[in-house]
Amino acid sequence: MNRKIIVRTAAPAALALLISLAAAGQPARAVTVDPACKPGLDAILKQIGTPTHIYATEVPAHGGKKPEVRETIYAGGAIYIQLRGQWKRSPLSTQDMRKQQEENVRNAKSMSCRFLRDETVNGEGAAVYRAQTVTEAMKSEATLWVSKRTGLPLRSENDLDSGGGKMHLAIRYDYNNVQPPAGVK
Predict the structure, then answer these.
(1) Residue 123 lies in a domain
(2) Shortest CA distance to 48 belongs to which of 101, 98, 88?
(3) How far from 82 is each of 32, 73, 79, 106, 170, CA to CA, in Å?
(4) In whole numbers, what is the pLDDT of the chain averaged over residues?
(5) What's the pTM value of the predicted model, to 2 decimals?
(6) Which of 37, 40, 99, 147 is the most buried (most CB within 10 A)?
(7) How many domains does the chain have?
(8) CATH at 124
């Protein structure tokens, strides 16, 4: 059986902006991906292999829950996740994450994207894209700011609907002086 690994961290959540996680057990198939999605997909896959510090804020759409702030670091082929103030090394490597995301693209029911405009994010020129993805498990609408200089994501705003709940996810990507957390192996 083809099973999906769903890890609730900023990293996979960040990737949900273009590639929502498919339902467990869904067979792999080829989906026609809108060619306008290529810049965003390329940016996300490039980010997986680039030292990155991801800051994400997850806001439930209802239920009175407080926003959750999450941090994830990609460095040296490993993924580090901060949980309740403690850093842990993820069992998934960056290579595992890349393979998972490529599989998620194949499993999407639909994926459409469009270029919105050019903007500046923290002084850096960015192309802004809007993406809509549907899988067996989730619908997502996302806005992604991709650096014109590096081709890496700079930020994203994501609205996710799993049928059982909705949430908004705001993500900021930092590529400056990224190191694994001290003392975490």
Answers:
(1) yes
(2) 98
(3) 36, 9, 10, 29, 17
(4) 81
(5) 0.80
(6) 40
(7) 1
(8) 2.50.20
Token pair of 31 as six digits = 């989906």
Q: What is the pLDDT of residues 19-72, one digit of tens each?
A: 333 332 334 445 566 788 889 889 998 999 999 999 999 988 766 678 888 999
Q: Confirm whether 70 is domain-assigned.
A: yes
Round to whole Å and give the CA distance between 52 and 174: 6
Residue 77 neighbours by CB distance under 10 Å: 10
Does 1 score more than 50 pLDDT? no
Structure-token match 């709940």, residue found: 165
pLDDT recorded at residue 169: 92
Give 132-143 pLDDT, tens digit per residue. Answer: 888 888 888 999
CB within 8 A of 180, min separation 6: which ones?
Answer: 73, 75, 76, 78, 80
Which residues form the domain of 151? 11-21+29-174
Answer yes or no: is 75 within a domain.
yes
pLDDT for 3 beyond 80: no
Q: SS3 breakdown of the chain: % helix, strand, coil, rounded to 5? A: 20, 45, 40
CA 22 to chain centroid, in Å, comes to 14
For residue 28, what is the DSSP state?
Answer: P
Residue 3 covered by a domain: no
